[in-house]
Amino acid sequence: MASSSFTSTLSVCGYACVPKEPDFAPPSKTVSMASCAQRVCKKVQSRITLRQIVMSKLATKTPKTPAEEDWKVKRDYLMKKQVRSVNAKEAYRLQQKEGYVILDVRPEGNFKEEHPAGAMNVEIYRLIKEWTPWDIARRAAFAFFGIFSGTEENPDFLNDIRLKLDKNAKIIVGCSAGGTLKPSPNLADGQQSRSLIAAYLLELDGYKNVLHLEGGLRSWFKEGLPTENTN
Question: pTM of the full predicted structure?
Answer without folding.
Answer: 0.67
